[in-house]
Amino acid sequence: MTAGTAAASQGERTALVVGATGIAGSALVEQLLAEGWSVLALSRTAGAERSGVRWLSADLTSAESLSAALAPVDPSHVFFTAWSRRDTEEENIAVNAGMLRDLLAALRGKDVAHVALMTGLKHYLGPFEAYAAGEMADTPFHEEEPRLPVANFYYAQEDELFAAAAAQGFTWSVHRSHTVIGHAVGNAMNMGLTLAAQAALCRETGEPFVFPGSETQWNGLTDMTDAGLLAEHMLWAATTPGAADEAYNIVNGDVFRWRWMWPRLAAYFGVDWEGYAGSPRPLERAMTGREEQWAELARRYGLAEPRLDRVASWWHTDSDLGRDIEVVTDMGKSRDAGFTGYRRTLDAFTALFDRYRAENLIP
Ligand SMILES: NC(=O)c1ccc[n+]([C@@H]2O[C@H](COP(=O)([O-])OP(=O)(O)OC[C@H]3O[C@@H](n4cnc5c(N)ncnc54)[C@H](OP(=O)(O)O)[C@@H]3O)[C@@H](O)[C@H]2O)c1
Protein backbone atom coordinates (compact mmCIF):
# COMPACT_ATOMS: atom_id res chain seq x y z
CA MET A 1 0.00 0.00 0.00
CA THR A 2 1.42 3.40 -0.94
CA ALA A 3 1.43 6.22 1.57
CA GLY A 4 -1.30 7.91 -0.45
CA THR A 5 -3.55 4.84 -0.37
CA ALA A 6 -3.05 4.60 3.37
CA ALA A 7 -4.08 8.24 3.82
CA ALA A 8 -7.12 7.80 1.60
CA SER A 9 -8.29 4.63 3.33
CA GLN A 10 -8.11 6.42 6.67
CA GLY A 11 -10.81 8.74 5.45
CA GLU A 12 -8.70 11.78 4.54
CA ARG A 13 -10.21 12.15 1.13
CA THR A 14 -9.49 15.41 -0.61
CA ALA A 15 -10.05 15.56 -4.33
CA LEU A 16 -8.26 17.91 -6.70
CA VAL A 17 -10.51 18.46 -9.73
CA VAL A 18 -8.49 19.95 -12.57
CA GLY A 19 -10.75 21.75 -15.06
CA ALA A 20 -13.44 22.16 -12.38
CA THR A 21 -15.59 24.63 -14.34
CA GLY A 22 -15.75 22.34 -17.39
CA ILE A 23 -18.52 20.02 -18.50
CA ALA A 24 -16.95 16.97 -16.83
CA GLY A 25 -15.14 18.78 -14.01
CA SER A 26 -18.26 20.53 -12.74
CA ALA A 27 -20.16 17.20 -12.64
CA LEU A 28 -17.27 15.73 -10.67
CA VAL A 29 -17.38 18.56 -8.15
CA GLU A 30 -21.09 17.88 -7.59
CA GLN A 31 -20.59 14.12 -7.27
CA LEU A 32 -17.67 14.49 -4.86
CA LEU A 33 -19.59 16.94 -2.64
CA ALA A 34 -22.60 14.59 -2.63
CA GLU A 35 -20.29 11.83 -1.39
CA GLY A 36 -18.82 13.99 1.37
CA TRP A 37 -15.37 14.79 -0.07
CA SER A 38 -13.43 17.99 0.40
CA VAL A 39 -12.83 19.47 -3.04
CA LEU A 40 -9.96 21.53 -4.38
CA ALA A 41 -11.20 22.97 -7.67
CA LEU A 42 -8.62 24.18 -10.20
CA SER A 43 -9.18 26.33 -13.30
CA ARG A 44 -8.08 29.79 -14.42
CA THR A 45 -11.43 31.36 -13.52
CA ALA A 46 -13.05 30.36 -10.25
CA GLY A 47 -16.57 28.93 -10.27
CA ALA A 48 -19.35 29.58 -7.77
CA GLU A 49 -18.41 29.61 -4.09
CA ARG A 50 -19.95 26.70 -2.22
CA SER A 51 -19.37 24.88 1.01
CA GLY A 52 -16.79 22.10 0.71
CA VAL A 53 -15.04 23.62 -2.33
CA ARG A 54 -11.81 25.62 -2.28
CA TRP A 55 -11.02 27.28 -5.62
CA LEU A 56 -7.41 27.34 -6.77
CA SER A 57 -6.79 29.73 -9.64
CA ALA A 58 -3.89 28.51 -11.73
CA ASP A 59 -2.81 28.41 -15.36
CA LEU A 60 -1.94 24.84 -16.37
CA THR A 61 0.33 26.16 -19.10
CA SER A 62 2.59 27.74 -16.47
CA ALA A 63 4.64 25.44 -14.23
CA GLU A 64 5.29 28.38 -11.87
CA SER A 65 1.59 29.12 -11.54
CA LEU A 66 0.89 25.45 -10.74
CA SER A 67 3.67 25.19 -8.15
CA ALA A 68 2.41 28.30 -6.39
CA ALA A 69 -1.24 27.17 -6.38
CA LEU A 70 -0.53 23.60 -5.28
CA ALA A 71 2.20 24.24 -2.70
CA PRO A 72 -0.20 24.68 0.24
CA VAL A 73 -2.57 21.76 -0.56
CA ASP A 74 -2.46 17.97 -0.17
CA PRO A 75 -4.97 16.17 -2.37
CA SER A 76 -5.36 12.40 -1.95
CA HIS A 77 -7.02 11.95 -5.37
CA VAL A 78 -6.63 13.91 -8.60
CA PHE A 79 -9.18 14.10 -11.42
CA PHE A 80 -7.78 15.65 -14.59
CA THR A 81 -10.54 16.95 -16.90
CA ALA A 82 -8.93 20.06 -18.43
CA TRP A 83 -7.87 20.64 -22.00
CA SER A 84 -6.86 23.44 -24.27
CA ARG A 85 -7.87 23.38 -27.93
CA ARG A 86 -5.06 24.24 -30.37
CA ASP A 87 -4.89 24.47 -34.16
CA THR A 88 -2.78 21.39 -34.86
CA GLU A 89 -2.36 18.04 -33.13
CA GLU A 90 1.33 18.79 -32.70
CA GLU A 91 0.37 21.83 -30.63
CA ASN A 92 -2.36 19.87 -28.83
CA ILE A 93 0.25 17.34 -27.79
CA ALA A 94 2.77 19.92 -26.64
CA VAL A 95 0.21 21.91 -24.64
CA ASN A 96 -2.11 19.22 -23.27
CA ALA A 97 0.57 16.65 -22.39
CA GLY A 98 2.60 19.53 -20.94
CA MET A 99 -0.30 20.66 -18.72
CA LEU A 100 -0.65 17.17 -17.23
CA ARG A 101 3.12 16.75 -16.85
CA ASP A 102 3.53 20.07 -15.04
CA LEU A 103 0.49 19.44 -12.83
CA LEU A 104 1.85 16.03 -11.74
CA ALA A 105 5.32 17.49 -11.24
CA ALA A 106 3.86 20.14 -8.94
CA LEU A 107 2.35 17.33 -6.82
CA ARG A 108 5.68 15.47 -6.45
CA GLY A 109 6.43 14.61 -2.83
CA LYS A 110 2.77 14.83 -1.80
CA ASP A 111 0.62 11.96 -0.59
CA VAL A 112 -1.39 11.35 -3.80
CA ALA A 113 -3.11 7.94 -3.96
CA HIS A 114 -4.71 8.05 -7.42
CA VAL A 115 -4.83 10.14 -10.59
CA ALA A 116 -7.80 9.73 -12.97
CA LEU A 117 -7.46 11.15 -16.49
CA MET A 118 -10.40 11.93 -18.75
CA THR A 119 -9.83 11.37 -22.46
CA GLY A 120 -12.28 10.26 -25.15
CA LEU A 121 -13.11 8.23 -28.22
CA LYS A 122 -10.61 10.15 -30.33
CA HIS A 123 -8.36 7.48 -28.84
CA TYR A 124 -9.98 5.13 -31.41
CA LEU A 125 -11.14 7.68 -34.01
CA GLY A 126 -7.96 9.71 -34.35
CA PRO A 127 -7.25 13.37 -33.54
CA PHE A 128 -9.35 16.25 -34.93
CA GLU A 129 -7.09 16.76 -37.92
CA ALA A 130 -7.37 13.06 -38.94
CA TYR A 131 -10.77 12.49 -37.33
CA ALA A 132 -12.46 9.24 -38.35
CA ALA A 133 -10.29 9.38 -41.47
CA GLY A 134 -7.82 6.50 -41.31
CA GLU A 135 -8.24 2.79 -40.72
CA MET A 136 -10.05 2.22 -37.42
CA ALA A 137 -10.96 -0.66 -35.19
CA ASP A 138 -14.31 -2.33 -35.67
CA THR A 139 -17.17 -1.04 -33.52
CA PRO A 140 -17.99 -1.38 -30.73
CA PHE A 141 -14.65 0.07 -29.62
CA HIS A 142 -12.83 -2.02 -27.01
CA GLU A 143 -10.13 -0.75 -24.68
CA GLU A 144 -7.66 -3.40 -25.83
CA GLU A 145 -7.36 -1.94 -29.34
CA PRO A 146 -3.81 -0.94 -30.23
CA ARG A 147 -3.14 2.78 -30.63
CA LEU A 148 -3.62 4.22 -34.12
CA PRO A 149 -0.41 5.00 -35.99
CA VAL A 150 -0.99 8.78 -35.79
CA ALA A 151 0.08 11.31 -33.19
CA ASN A 152 -2.68 11.97 -30.65
CA PHE A 153 -2.66 14.16 -27.54
CA TYR A 154 -4.57 11.47 -25.60
CA TYR A 155 -1.68 9.03 -26.15
CA ALA A 156 0.81 11.67 -25.05
CA GLN A 157 -1.26 12.38 -21.91
CA GLU A 158 -1.51 8.66 -21.12
CA ASP A 159 2.27 8.35 -21.41
CA GLU A 160 2.78 11.29 -19.03
CA LEU A 161 0.36 9.66 -16.58
CA PHE A 162 2.06 6.25 -16.74
CA ALA A 163 5.53 7.75 -16.27
CA ALA A 164 4.51 9.87 -13.28
CA ALA A 165 2.56 6.99 -11.68
CA ALA A 166 5.68 4.80 -11.86
CA ALA A 167 7.94 7.54 -10.51
CA GLN A 168 5.61 8.94 -7.82
CA GLY A 169 3.84 5.75 -6.67
CA PHE A 170 0.17 6.57 -7.27
CA THR A 171 -2.41 4.41 -9.05
CA TRP A 172 -4.07 5.71 -12.21
CA SER A 173 -7.12 5.31 -14.42
CA VAL A 174 -8.04 6.58 -17.89
CA HIS A 175 -11.67 7.32 -18.82
CA ARG A 176 -12.49 7.35 -22.55
CA SER A 177 -15.86 9.01 -23.02
CA HIS A 178 -18.00 9.51 -26.10
CA THR A 179 -19.72 12.89 -26.66
CA VAL A 180 -20.41 14.32 -23.20
CA ILE A 181 -23.68 16.01 -22.33
CA GLY A 182 -23.64 18.04 -19.15
CA HIS A 183 -23.79 21.42 -17.55
CA ALA A 184 -21.18 24.03 -18.46
CA VAL A 185 -21.24 27.47 -20.05
CA GLY A 186 -18.53 28.92 -22.24
CA ASN A 187 -16.69 25.62 -22.76
CA ALA A 188 -15.46 24.28 -26.09
CA MET A 189 -17.60 21.17 -26.64
CA ASN A 190 -21.14 20.93 -25.31
CA MET A 191 -23.71 19.12 -27.45
CA GLY A 192 -26.56 19.36 -24.93
CA LEU A 193 -26.55 23.15 -24.67
CA THR A 194 -25.82 23.50 -28.39
CA LEU A 195 -28.93 21.51 -29.38
CA ALA A 196 -31.00 23.37 -26.77
CA ALA A 197 -29.86 26.72 -28.23
CA GLN A 198 -30.60 25.54 -31.79
CA ALA A 199 -34.12 24.50 -30.76
CA ALA A 200 -34.77 27.77 -28.90
CA LEU A 201 -33.67 29.84 -31.91
CA CYS A 202 -35.80 27.74 -34.28
CA ARG A 203 -38.86 28.02 -32.06
CA GLU A 204 -38.61 31.81 -32.09
CA THR A 205 -38.60 32.02 -35.88
CA GLY A 206 -40.90 29.06 -36.59
CA GLU A 207 -38.11 27.21 -38.41
CA PRO A 208 -37.87 23.42 -38.14
CA PHE A 209 -35.26 21.83 -35.88
CA VAL A 210 -32.98 20.41 -38.59
CA PHE A 211 -30.69 17.44 -38.00
CA PRO A 212 -27.29 18.83 -39.06
CA GLY A 213 -25.38 15.60 -39.53
CA SER A 214 -24.66 12.74 -41.90
CA GLU A 215 -26.83 9.93 -43.21
CA THR A 216 -24.68 7.43 -41.29
CA GLN A 217 -25.30 9.20 -38.00
CA TRP A 218 -29.01 9.65 -38.72
CA ASN A 219 -29.58 5.96 -39.43
CA GLY A 220 -26.79 4.18 -37.53
CA LEU A 221 -26.48 3.11 -33.93
CA THR A 222 -24.58 5.34 -31.56
CA ASP A 223 -24.17 6.14 -27.86
CA MET A 224 -23.25 9.03 -25.59
CA THR A 225 -21.84 9.91 -22.14
CA ASP A 226 -23.73 11.74 -19.42
CA ALA A 227 -21.35 13.93 -17.41
CA GLY A 228 -22.84 12.72 -14.12
CA LEU A 229 -22.22 9.09 -15.07
CA LEU A 230 -18.66 9.94 -16.11
CA ALA A 231 -18.13 11.50 -12.67
CA GLU A 232 -19.43 8.33 -10.99
CA HIS A 233 -17.09 6.25 -13.17
CA MET A 234 -14.01 8.33 -12.35
CA LEU A 235 -14.80 8.19 -8.65
CA TRP A 236 -15.41 4.45 -8.81
CA ALA A 237 -12.05 3.72 -10.49
CA ALA A 238 -10.25 6.06 -8.09
CA THR A 239 -11.59 4.38 -4.96
CA THR A 240 -12.34 0.73 -5.78
CA PRO A 241 -9.63 -1.77 -4.88
CA GLY A 242 -8.70 -3.72 -8.00
CA ALA A 243 -10.19 -1.20 -10.46
CA ALA A 244 -7.10 0.99 -10.77
CA ASP A 245 -4.26 0.98 -13.30
CA GLU A 246 -6.60 0.44 -16.24
CA ALA A 247 -8.07 2.43 -19.12
CA TYR A 248 -11.87 2.21 -19.44
CA ASN A 249 -14.49 3.32 -21.92
CA ILE A 250 -17.39 5.21 -20.38
CA VAL A 251 -20.76 5.60 -22.12
CA ASN A 252 -24.34 5.57 -20.86
CA GLY A 253 -24.94 1.88 -21.56
CA ASP A 254 -27.80 2.23 -24.04
CA VAL A 255 -27.60 2.67 -27.81
CA PHE A 256 -29.90 4.72 -30.02
CA ARG A 257 -30.33 6.04 -33.55
CA TRP A 258 -30.55 9.79 -34.13
CA ARG A 259 -33.61 9.20 -36.35
CA TRP A 260 -35.27 7.89 -33.15
CA MET A 261 -33.81 10.50 -30.79
CA TRP A 262 -34.29 13.67 -32.90
CA PRO A 263 -38.13 13.72 -32.97
CA ARG A 264 -38.14 13.14 -29.21
CA LEU A 265 -35.82 16.11 -28.59
CA ALA A 266 -38.02 18.20 -30.92
CA ALA A 267 -41.10 17.15 -28.93
CA TYR A 268 -39.44 18.27 -25.69
CA PHE A 269 -38.87 21.74 -27.16
CA GLY A 270 -42.22 21.88 -28.97
CA VAL A 271 -40.69 22.43 -32.42
CA ASP A 272 -41.21 20.81 -35.82
CA TRP A 273 -38.23 18.83 -37.06
CA GLU A 274 -36.50 17.67 -40.23
CA GLY A 275 -34.21 14.66 -40.48
CA TYR A 276 -31.37 13.90 -42.86
CA ALA A 277 -32.47 14.88 -46.36
CA GLY A 278 -29.75 14.13 -48.89
CA SER A 279 -26.75 15.93 -47.39
CA PRO A 280 -25.55 17.27 -44.02
CA ARG A 281 -26.79 20.76 -43.07
CA PRO A 282 -24.09 21.96 -40.64
CA LEU A 283 -25.05 24.23 -37.78
CA GLU A 284 -22.00 26.44 -38.33
CA ARG A 285 -23.60 27.50 -41.61
CA ALA A 286 -27.27 27.46 -40.56
CA MET A 287 -26.73 29.26 -37.25
CA THR A 288 -24.26 31.87 -38.38
CA GLY A 289 -25.27 35.48 -37.70
CA ARG A 290 -27.78 34.62 -34.96
CA GLU A 291 -25.91 36.40 -32.16
CA GLU A 292 -28.32 39.33 -32.01
CA GLN A 293 -31.33 36.99 -32.14
CA TRP A 294 -29.95 35.16 -29.09
CA ALA A 295 -29.16 38.42 -27.28
CA GLU A 296 -32.77 39.51 -27.88
CA LEU A 297 -34.05 36.16 -26.54
CA ALA A 298 -31.82 36.65 -23.51
CA ARG A 299 -33.26 40.13 -22.89
CA ARG A 300 -36.85 38.97 -23.33
CA TYR A 301 -36.62 35.87 -21.14
CA GLY A 302 -33.99 37.14 -18.70
CA LEU A 303 -31.48 34.47 -19.73
CA ALA A 304 -28.25 34.11 -17.80
CA GLU A 305 -25.93 34.15 -20.84
CA PRO A 306 -26.55 36.68 -23.62
CA ARG A 307 -23.56 35.56 -25.71
CA LEU A 308 -24.45 32.81 -28.16
CA ASP A 309 -20.80 31.80 -28.61
CA ARG A 310 -20.64 30.93 -24.90
CA VAL A 311 -23.75 28.77 -25.15
CA ALA A 312 -23.42 26.88 -28.43
CA SER A 313 -20.42 25.01 -29.85
CA TRP A 314 -21.73 24.50 -33.38
CA TRP A 315 -18.40 23.22 -34.77
CA HIS A 316 -18.26 20.35 -32.27
CA THR A 317 -21.84 19.16 -32.75
CA ASP A 318 -21.32 19.37 -36.54
CA SER A 319 -18.20 17.30 -36.21
CA ASP A 320 -19.82 14.62 -34.01
CA LEU A 321 -23.07 14.34 -35.94
CA GLY A 322 -21.31 14.67 -39.30
CA ARG A 323 -19.17 11.56 -38.94
CA ASP A 324 -19.58 9.14 -41.76
CA ILE A 325 -18.94 6.09 -39.61
CA GLU A 326 -20.82 4.24 -36.91
CA VAL A 327 -19.54 4.98 -33.39
CA VAL A 328 -20.55 2.65 -30.57
CA THR A 329 -18.60 1.79 -27.49
CA ASP A 330 -18.17 -1.38 -25.45
CA MET A 331 -18.68 -1.16 -21.66
CA GLY A 332 -17.88 -4.81 -20.86
CA LYS A 333 -14.54 -4.09 -19.22
CA SER A 334 -16.04 -1.67 -16.67
CA ARG A 335 -18.92 -4.03 -15.94
CA ASP A 336 -16.58 -6.98 -15.39
CA ALA A 337 -14.62 -4.80 -12.97
CA GLY A 338 -17.82 -3.94 -11.06
CA PHE A 339 -19.06 -0.62 -12.48
CA THR A 340 -22.76 -0.99 -13.28
CA GLY A 341 -23.76 2.69 -13.57
CA TYR A 342 -26.23 3.40 -16.37
CA ARG A 343 -28.24 6.23 -17.92
CA ARG A 344 -30.98 6.26 -20.54
CA THR A 345 -29.68 8.86 -22.96
CA LEU A 346 -33.11 10.38 -23.69
CA ASP A 347 -33.67 10.84 -19.94
CA ALA A 348 -30.18 12.32 -19.59
CA PHE A 349 -31.01 14.86 -22.32
CA THR A 350 -34.37 15.87 -20.86
CA ALA A 351 -33.04 16.10 -17.28
CA LEU A 352 -30.28 18.36 -18.58
CA PHE A 353 -32.72 20.54 -20.55
CA ASP A 354 -34.91 20.84 -17.42
CA ARG A 355 -31.84 22.04 -15.53
CA TYR A 356 -30.89 24.55 -18.25
CA ARG A 357 -34.43 25.94 -18.01
CA ALA A 358 -34.41 26.05 -14.22
CA GLU A 359 -31.14 28.01 -14.35
CA ASN A 360 -32.36 30.36 -17.09
CA LEU A 361 -29.84 29.20 -19.66
CA ILE A 362 -32.56 28.54 -22.23
CA PRO A 363 -36.12 29.93 -22.48
N1 LIG B 1 -16.94 17.67 -24.13
C1 LIG B 1 -17.03 16.51 -24.78
O1 LIG B 1 -18.06 16.20 -25.43
C2 LIG B 1 -15.88 15.52 -24.70
C3 LIG B 1 -16.10 14.23 -25.20
C4 LIG B 1 -15.07 13.29 -25.13
C5 LIG B 1 -13.85 13.65 -24.62
N2 LIG B 1 -13.62 14.91 -24.17
C6 LIG B 1 -12.28 15.22 -23.63
O2 LIG B 1 -12.38 15.51 -22.26
C7 LIG B 1 -11.33 16.40 -21.86
C8 LIG B 1 -11.95 17.55 -21.13
O3 LIG B 1 -12.87 18.19 -22.02
P1 LIG B 1 -14.18 18.95 -21.53
O4 LIG B 1 -15.06 19.10 -22.73
O5 LIG B 1 -14.69 18.30 -20.29
O6 LIG B 1 -13.52 20.36 -21.16
P2 LIG B 1 -14.22 21.77 -20.95
O7 LIG B 1 -15.66 21.60 -20.61
O8 LIG B 1 -13.85 22.64 -22.10
O9 LIG B 1 -13.48 22.28 -19.64
C9 LIG B 1 -12.12 22.59 -19.64
C10 LIG B 1 -11.71 22.97 -18.23
O10 LIG B 1 -10.30 23.17 -18.21
C11 LIG B 1 -10.01 24.46 -17.68
N3 LIG B 1 -8.82 24.96 -18.35
C12 LIG B 1 -8.61 25.09 -19.68
N4 LIG B 1 -7.39 25.62 -19.92
C13 LIG B 1 -6.83 25.81 -18.69
C14 LIG B 1 -5.60 26.34 -18.26
N5 LIG B 1 -4.67 26.79 -19.12
N6 LIG B 1 -5.36 26.41 -16.93
C15 LIG B 1 -6.27 25.99 -16.04
N7 LIG B 1 -7.46 25.46 -16.38
C16 LIG B 1 -7.74 25.38 -17.70
C17 LIG B 1 -11.25 25.30 -18.00
O11 LIG B 1 -11.41 26.39 -17.11
P3 LIG B 1 -10.82 27.87 -17.43
O12 LIG B 1 -11.07 28.13 -18.88
O13 LIG B 1 -11.57 28.79 -16.49
O14 LIG B 1 -9.39 27.81 -17.09
C18 LIG B 1 -12.34 24.25 -17.72
O15 LIG B 1 -12.59 24.17 -16.34
C19 LIG B 1 -10.60 16.79 -23.17
O16 LIG B 1 -9.47 16.00 -23.31
C20 LIG B 1 -11.61 16.45 -24.25
O17 LIG B 1 -11.00 16.16 -25.47
C21 LIG B 1 -14.62 15.86 -24.17
From TrEMBL:
CDD domains: 5beta-POR_like_SDR_a (cd08948). Gene3D superfamilies: NAD(P)-binding Rossmann-like Domain (3.40.50.720). It comes from the Bacteria. InterPro entries: NAD(P)-bd_dom_sf (IPR036291), PRISE-like_Rossmann-fold (IPR055222). Residues 76-363 form the PRISE-like Rossmann-fold domain. This is NAD-dependent dehydratase.
